[in-house]
## 1
Amino acid sequence: MFDFLEYGFNQRALIAAALIGFSNGALGALIVLRKNALVVSALAHALLPGIALGILVFGALNPFVGFVGALFGTLVVGLSTVYVSRIALLDHQTSLSVLYTTAFAAGLLMLEHIPSFVGLEGWLFGNILGLRNTDLWISYFVSMSILLLLFHWRRGWILYLFEADIAASMGVPVRRMNYLLTLMMVLGLVTSLQAVGSVLSAALFITPAAIVLQLARSPRTLIWGSGFVGCSAATCAIFLGNWYNLRPGAVIILLLGLMFPVSLGLKHLREGLIASNKK
Amino acid sequence: MAESSTVTPLPITSLGSSHRPNAAHELQVENLHVHHGRICALAEVNFSIGCGHCVGVLGQNGAGKSTLLKSIAGLLPAVKGQIQWRGHPLAKVRSEIAYLPQIDSIDPYFPLTVEGLVDMGRYPHLGEHAAWRKLDREVVETALDTLQLQDLRHRRLYQLSGGQRQRAQIARALAQEAHILLLDEPFSGLDEPSQRMLIKVLRDLADNGRLLLVCHHDLKAVPEIFDTVLLLNRKPVGFGPTEEAFTPENLNAAFERRPEDVHV
């Protein structure tokens, strides 16, 4: 039953799933509290132009080009969004929509000049079984950096997300955190690409937090609970994928999607219990 | 939702003696100028006030009320002038100033209980990682007692009425042990009983030696709430004890047509 774990690629897939599932789940809690759920999906679109640019510059698509290109594309779009919304007095979503669609269109035009794009599918739909040791190290460092940054401002993040003006008046470095959260989002996105692909990557952030938000009464429970949910769903999916021969990336997202109504049900059950206790 | 406990007096003795009015506790604003982008939002603000007062910052929309509060809270940089508290520049005494934004800017569905919100007030004292001490717990308990929030402490914010939310915010400021409370339109959206309870809360805080600066646009209850008023119309047009400064002439100056935008 666990024979498949003798293979290196399955071991790597399992470790990567656990790491990415936890750190992106925990980070997702911040993104959901900042009401940025769609921002992640939009940002994921900046990958295609990034990778296309990488292919044009380096002449071929290999994992290094894919990673650097994806990172570059999302970073440029993500960070310029924060800056543009500040100087143009636009809300975050408007400036992001302008920037990511522009970048995506540029990416499409670039792809026309690339004869064949073998391997692009892996980046769009994920290929967690194809991870090499270097990919695993990258996931490890990205996950650890995200978790360290979360922990470093463990009270500050919560204040910042609750009300930025209150946070700033108490000395929380709000402006720096604005950029930092976008940076973390981009890093998390790029690592989750190889696992679930750009199309589904947003779900790794958003769905765990949406699940835990139904039950959490404090931001801290939400953050670490979302990490735990993301990690468990991702590891379970590797097993299920192997046993039933399914694409693990899609299984992760589907599992999370199925857990959501369960937590919704639990919430209503609990509220019903509280109400009947009061009677 | 109506306030459940509107008339019970607050146990003000629990505030402790360290907040008695004290002459050295003086907020001094000197020649303050604040710009929004290229527009001069506030100019030539000069005033000085000791603690133990509840100051109404009055004026029409766009008069610079919120701008003044945000500037004192350190959220908007001054292009000219300075603000001092007890002879120190504000940046050095940040924890002594609590900023309370309009209640609408707070998301009631944020996963937080009343107690969790009040706990946040300890941040300037504890920072990111320091463990909670017995003192911190006591300060939070006192703040909850003072604003009569003990029964509501485990409620989520969306389960509170507007007045209760406002009290929870004030309790957060007390947990911060702030001397100066900056409140942006705390009365907006409150029903009559909640308004009366909030007036009592603010008066008690001032009588116990806090300094409150309150943005307010409704002129009806001004003499009842504020012992001092500051009338703004892009620049101060009146400042002083309510009975002296809250005059028809000053009100005319404050509520006449807003001055044209001055681009800088």
## 2
Amino acid sequence: MNPYASVTQLRSGLDNGDFSAEELAHCYLDRIDAAKDLNCFITVDAEGVLDAAKRADKAIANKRIGPLTGIPIAHKDLFCTRGLLTSCASRMLNNFVAPYDATVVDRLKRAGAITIGKTNMDEFAMGSSNETSFYGPVKNPWDRECVPGGSSGGSAAAVAAGLAAACTGSDTGGSIRQPASFCGVTGLKPTYGRVSRYGMIAFASSLDQGGPLARSASDAGTLLNAMEGYDPNDSTSAIADATDISSSSRALKIGIPTQYWSDLSPSLTKVLEEARRTLESLGHQAVSLELPHTNAATAVYYVIAGAEASTNLSRYDGIRYGHRAAAPENLEDLYQFSRSEGFGSEVKRRILTGTYALSVGYYDAYYLKAQQIRRLIRQDFLDAFGEADVILTPVSPSTAFKREALIEDPISMYQQDIYTTPASLAGLPALSLPCGVSDEMPVGMQFIGPHFGESSLLTLGREYQDETDWHALHPADNHD
Amino acid sequence: MDQQTIDKLLSLSKLSLLPDDREKLLRDLSSIIGLVDFMQSIDTEGVAPLAHPLEVTQRLRPDEPDTSFDQEHYQAIAPQIRDGLYLVPRVVK
């Protein structure tokens, strides 16, 4: 059994009786156990996944087969899973067993997927290196000295190391795309509103969006189809047609924004240029374009995300659920001690930044100003999509960096998100997919599309992956 | 950014810090504010703020009775409850 097989290959293997869902679940459970040092998982649900696999085998025998029946996947540990720990990688939720399933979890279950566990992440999804988790850092399976990216680092590393067929993640400013790039897997941030946020623990509600991390654009599309769709339980859920994941390719104009390519290192430029040439050889046309407000995106993002986080995280009070400080003398102490003990330093930093941006005297200069520039950034993209069908950019200024290289320097860490935050602010879909290697570490590229343009991104991704095999590379097993 | 502002922010956020962490926080917040001050160089005269990326207003569901949450199930995760009530330190002496 090949643990690096695509969802399509696993589907036919299960349906043809080449292996059972139970055997497949055992295969991944054994690999998770052997790769414990990567620290990809916060919770492994061995009993639950084997029970579900037995039910899946019966369903397959009775020809009641959904698109993901018997396929083991893992959820980022911010999706609520009924009866299973949902910690958000925080001490604050170290004891939080969710009383209900997130819509994403529910829909994937209905499509037949079975949950093998919950993946490690940056605390409350705040980080670009998976070093802020209460449960310790995740290691990059390509080089265990390096970070897997963040915040969906456990999900990306788990897919890369063949520990699950695919994973869910969430992306607020790049948290699916950057770890996908660092780990050599394919990750999709859908259009804001396409995937329900119900039961996905909130960080920045006008930016948060769930999505898949998978081995290919084709697999990402299969997962997206299962996850997406209008949900009355999410007041920002969009009413939109399901993504067409089998549309045929057509010649596209691919926008190359000057602002994203000009400061790129020579080694990454070489890889990205090669990817551009491959796309041109497939009949697409590259056109230069401008996205003039790109360089303000990081600043705007950290104001808006911080402001929304400070509001969202005010719910953690030590009273209704989550960490509660021992023996507080009064209500004020209960709040303050529970929150101070429960949150890690990066979360506190973001809450305080957001509180500053929202406080009297600074609101206009920071929060309102950020929202105004957010409109300019969005307008840049709307103008650009008058000239191009898809925009091609790097995902990150570098390949995976060493652990502890940036953790003490929040500004350098925040600058890692420079190529991913603009699409988040504009609510656009963006696909991160492997396009080469630099110093033996994976390099990703990003396709950004117009609102609800996932179909074009996935079709272009499929076409590129039919032509190249960067997505099929995987790290060598390094089990002790 | 100064210690007085840090005190105010901590109080608003219901957070506290150890003395060593305060110094680092002051440095970090100062540099983060330096980063976001780049925004002031952008001309936004007459630009309306954008709160929702698709400029959609939030929908309301019809106001119809639905099954309610099961109190016992939801309170099972509460740190301290008694008789269906959440317990907090005494507020009224």
## 3
Amino acid sequence: MLNYQFDWSTVTSGKYFDWLASGVKVTLQLSALSIVLAFILGLLIAVMRMSNNKPVRWIAHAYLEFFRNTPLLVQIFFWYFGSYKILPTAVNDWLNSTNFEFAAAVIALTIYTSAFIAEDIRSGVLSIPKEQMEAARSAGFSYLRSMQYIILPQAVRLTVPPLVNQFLNLAKNSSLAMTIGVMELTYQARQVESYTFKGFEAFTAATVVYVAISLVITALVNIYNEKVLNIHKAA
Amino acid sequence: MDQFFNISVIADNFTYFMIGRFPNGPLGGLGLTLYLASVSCVLSFFGGLILGLLSISRFRAVRYPAVAFINLVRGMPLLMVIFWMYFLLPALFGKVAESQTVIMALTLFTSAYMSRIVVAGIEGIPKGQTEAAISTGLKPWQAMLYIVLPQGLRNMIPSFVNQFVSLIKDTSLAFIVGVSELTHVGTQINNRTMAYPTEIFVFIALIYFIVCYAFTSLSRWLEQRLAWRKAI
């Protein structure tokens, strides 16, 4: 360690910088695409979880428990190696025609994250007074329409901070995609290390990017909490 | 591909999935997963306790570095922490076994999360307790150690169990440095048999699910019990 020669120029310029930069790009693409899909899926599961229909509720509950209590890595491996048997041929053909590593990572991250998002949305909805739903129903809205126009718009506002946290988790979790060969940030840092033996520099660069993403977004959540939710409370 | 779900690949390798080559060889499979999770859990309990206490210290010189460290680790993916350890530990201490690298990484990572649980648990105890303790003549550290922590720790138990569940899931990342825990065993058998990835990964997912769900339910039960005890 003591006779280690630091060479920061390895990661701040040239080919290896380009590798890391492309890794950052893939990490952000993977996280952004997955969070959007996970939000939509999570919303659906949350609504199913609160449905009055017992089988629907039970399916949503089983989905939540299963995907929350299984490691993401195993889920990634399942979608990457094992999903072809349970998916229809048309879907398999389509997946193979795309960048399958990336697609498998998106599917796994989406499903894993949606289970956590659904619970966040549900606790947001549960914090909306029950009378709101009763009033909406008595005003003639159906259950789904009451959810859509009355409950969810209010709940989603409260759910923004935990959702942003889920996005942070997702950005960090996306590093697992390297195990199936998605060339995201951690993959590239590892790659730079094996080509240059400058592991300290490469890992520092990747760590700085991850921590920067996390600090910036945490700061934004704090601002949102103070400005938006406080204004909401005062009004 | 003679049948849709081939059970025999699971049945043939069942012992290997559960305990690896133990007792004739090193522990592996689910046994190693639970071993890694348990050791890291105990270590990160103490790590989290120390970090948590440091991060609410009255002295800025203590508090700031602790908070900075916690935020640094919480901002990093666990995989990154494992690579750091994998790279740094040999440079600092010479040869380190892979499983120890993983235990160190999991401990460091989980300690940062545990510290937040500890802080929340301490903050959940009314201020009056500390004030009363100090007015009876205890020093601030004695008030923390003998009055606040024993009560706070009890409230933290459900969160600790949840963290243990996360740890069990996180041990799957030990796969990346070649520690033969459950996920690694699964990929190994998958590479050897080639034809049954669906069966193998569904089976592994189910095992993780059974173990994790048991602990999740335990944590919920404890939470209810604690709420009930507080109510009387």
## 4
Amino acid sequence: MDLKIRKNGESYIIDVNGEMDLYNSYKLKELVMKMLEKKVERFIINLENVDYIDSSGIGALIYICSTIKKMGFKLVITNIHGSVKKVIELTKLMGYFPITPTIDDALKRMEA
Amino acid sequence: MAPAAKDIQVNENSPLFEKTGMLHKEFPSDFRQIRYFTLLIVQSAPPDIKEINLLEQQISEVIKNAVKHGNKCDPEKKVRVWYDFSPEHAHLIVEDEGPGFQDLEKWNEFNRKRQVLLEGNDFEALAEYVSFRGERADDNDGGNALFAALEYWDGGFVFNSKRNVVAMLKRFPKKRRGVKVESEK
């Protein structure tokens, strides 16, 4: 799994590339925690290039989501598709996660 | 009225434990190779199975549970898997050498409360019920695999009495066969 960060206005977009599985999902958690230490407050996690996620990946997203919510900061997860979407649906967490279809929608939601 | 939450069942006599005609493999409890072991099993599935990625992911979860939570990653302990696939079904039995899933009743109770919150769209309170944390859970455990498993394995997900063997069945919709005929103008 490869993680890239880019900035758009006040928001930081994390592009996740590859598989979010039991061997590497911790990397995303660690990255977000480091960004929080650096006072980042607006996160967009882009899963456009993620075709596989397991319970560790979902667990990482839960941890990130609950941490950011508790701190009162903003998070949007975007571009969920295929089996990734299916796994989130199976865990019934589509309503729990702040999800948008596209990055543009995510950016608009950040401004709302 | 909200539908009743599904429970994980314990039923030693479930027909899902019938192994006749199933393929069999056994693996050492090597955490690093869980996905590799899973691929060795999934490669015998027909390629036209619907959402084979999802099948792989769900099998990987039960093997991970056996390796990590059942056998505590002890390489001397084996995970045994019996499996049978067709375009219409996936049937698996996974056995570990651990003490069994001791938190099963706690998990069912947790899932019932979770279900009530989901039905009520109470996402604030749901925050406390998104992950089940067993006593031995660590930071890398998602705590959500069994929620998905109960939904995915729609033909049953059942443990034996000792709770160290779990059997499961997924049914796939039959594909329509035949020639598509265009309607006349």
